[in-house]
Amino acid sequence: MKKLSFALLALALSAACSFGPFVPVPTLTPEPTLTETPTLPPTSTPVPPTLTFTSTPTLIGLKTPTFTPEFSSTPEATITAFTTVTLTASNTAPPPVKTEGFISIAISLTEIYKAKGCEPSVVRVTAQVVDSNAAAYVLLFVRFKSMTAERVGKWTKLDMIPLGAGTFIYDLSSDQIKDDAYFETSWIEYQIVSTSKAGSEIGRTDIFKDRLKMLACDPNATPVTQTPAATTTPTP
Question: Which helix (H) or strand (E) holds 12?
């Protein structure tokens, strides 16, 4: 046994001598040790944002209008007034007129032209009194009334012509009425009064309105259709 161990040792030494000097064994560098660094939780203090301001240039000489709103609980309506005059024929009969002291009042036409130049320009007014023995005179009062404004002419008094049996007539034209020069197309209003020989009033009618029309004369115009005569009887 000792001989075997000695032989192995000698063999090893012999081999070492044949390969030369010993080769150093490299020294291993220890790996670095990782150390964990704890992460701190976020704090509750907010970080304010960075504000950026842009300056607005001020224009010299420019005024900024200031509006002050006005409030009202009740709306105000804007009213625009227009004046429109329309002359149209109406089929509605005028209201009755009191004719105290008369049996009837009649006109031969309801439209005439302004006198001289156009026809017809004359209307016959007829009145019949109740008491033919007492009524010695019958007076016709006439005036113009504007169709477009509250304007009237002066009253004109005319003596009606007796025909007998209490009947009186008068052929009326516009040139017999005062203020004829100031009216063109208009109404001719009339009223009739009866008196005794002594001048005492016996009968009087109310004013007849919107019954007799005077038209402006235009020689080139087409004549209007004649309107039938109008007769007024006493109202109860």
Answer: helix 2-19
Q: Is the pTM of this model over 0.90?
A: no
3-state secondary structure of 135: coil
The domains located in the chain, with CATH, are 99-232 (2.60.40.10)
In sequence order, what DSSP letters do the residues of 67-125 get, joined into one string? ------SSPPPP-------------SPPPP--EETEEEEEES-SEEEPTTTSS--EEEE
Amino acid residing at 123: V
Q: How far apart are CA 135 and CA 193, in angstroms?
A: 10
Q: What angle do CA 212, 105, 95 make, to 5 degrees?
A: 60
For 96, the token pair is 């009755």
| Cα 24 to the center of its chain, rounded Å | 120
Position 104 scores a pLDDT of 96
Q: Are strands 213-215 and 111-113 parallel, antiparallel or unpaired?
A: parallel
Residue 226's pLDDT is what? 52
Using 50 as the pLDDT threshold, list the residues of the chain that sit under it: 17-26, 35, 37-49, 51-90, 223, 225, 236
Q: Determine how many CB atoms are found less than 10 A away from the CB of residue 206.
A: 14
Report CA Rg, the chain: 64
